[in-house]
Specification:
This protein is an alpha+beta fold. It contains 8 helices and 5 strands. It has 2 domains: 127 residues, Ribosomal protein L10, N-terminal RNA-binding domain (Alpha-Beta Plaits, 2-Layer Sandwich); 40 residues, no CATH class.
Length: 173
Amino acid sequence: MNREEKKIIIDSLAEKLNQYPHFYLIDISGLNAEKTAELRSKCFESDVTMLVVKNTLLVKALEKVNMANADLVSVLSGSTSMMFTEVSKTPAVLIKEFRKSSDKPVLKAAFVEESVYVGDAALEDLVNIKSKEELIGEVVGLLQSPAKSVISALQSNGGQKIAGLLKTLEERN
């Protein structure tokens, strides 16, 4: 591979790193062609982009976009594949589901929600992480809950309760 080809690959990786907010570094070495094709198919179905990368070119791409975190760079040895995604936990769920029938892929590291997770032990944490949209939905649900309770209480036997409330307020004056 000549310099120009390497530059094109580095620029392409840098573009993907800027395009996607989350990425996973995994090891799929040892998977046969059939299992690899199955994994790629599951990635495609889940809107996850997967590519095999050369470690040295990835380091240069990470440096180019100012993401060359020491923890990420430290895991770059051996075979490395990347999974790019818009939804933070999709690859983690995909990996966990795929490993029910195989011991690969192994998680090397992940950059999710602007944090770095290192090692295969972090997979369970990544599966349980909530996306920004899920957290906003929970907060909205919690904020709506008291209002729904008041409205529900007023609607069930509402006439009696409202009359009792008005009578109590009149007696105070």
